[in-house]
Amino acid sequence: MNKQYFTFAEIRDSLADMHDITSEKRSAFANRIKNLQRKGFPGGVNTGRGTTANYLWEHLIRLGFVFEVLEIGIIPDKAIEFIEIQNDDLFTAIKSLVLTDGVERTFFVTSLGGLEDLRGHLLLETISQIVGESELPMLFAEPANRPKAVIDLHELVVRLYKSLEKVTSLPKETLADSFKAWAESL
């Protein structure tokens, strides 16, 4: 199956739907996405002024995840760094969710206190992890010296897919097949 491409409008409207952005605020939201593009995120989309951007499933997933991280309160530059560090684990978890129909929910868990060392470097390798539903209670049973944020990756994928389904003109079967094919290609 060929790669499935999405337009900026489909990506914007999908993410806006997912985050309950009203039509009055869509322009500002589009500017947030464009600002991320100016920073080179997600990679492979920043095609230059006047060139139509084509988005793939991985771009939608990365943008969706970054907006979840932004909601935690991390600034855009650090949110981008955040996903770059987590990229392989994130896509491995999402592949598993898609190909197993989310049999076991998967969560991204990060400790919020001390996200940066004194030089401003993210400390994600020691404070963030992707865990299955069975492991989640153990993380919260440990003494809580720092508050934690949890992103339900199953919920993220479902919300991204459902919101894209609302705004694209693709038939549902084509969209589902392209999503599965993308996951299988990882």
- Which term fits the overall shape? globular
Query: Structural class from helices and strands?
Result: mainly alpha
In total, the number of strands is: 3
Uncertain stretches: none
- Strands across the major sheet, in which order? 2-1-3
Q: H/E order of the elements?
A: HHHHEHEHEHH
Q: Which bin fits the share of residues in helices? A: 55-70%
Oligomerization state: single chain
Helical element count? 8
Largest sheet: 3 strands, antiparallel
Rounded to the nearest angstrom, the distance between the terminal CA atoms is 14 Å
Please tell me the overall pLDDT: 84
Q: Rg to the nearest angstrom?
A: 17 Å
Beta-strand content estimate = 5-15%
Which features characterize this protein?
single chain; 186 residues; mainly alpha; 3-stranded antiparallel sheet; 55% helix
Summed up:
The chain has helices spanning 8-18, 26-38, 57-72, 76-99, 124-127, 136-141, 153-167, 172-185; strands at residues 106-111, 128-132, 148-152. With 186 residues, the chain is mainly alpha-helical.
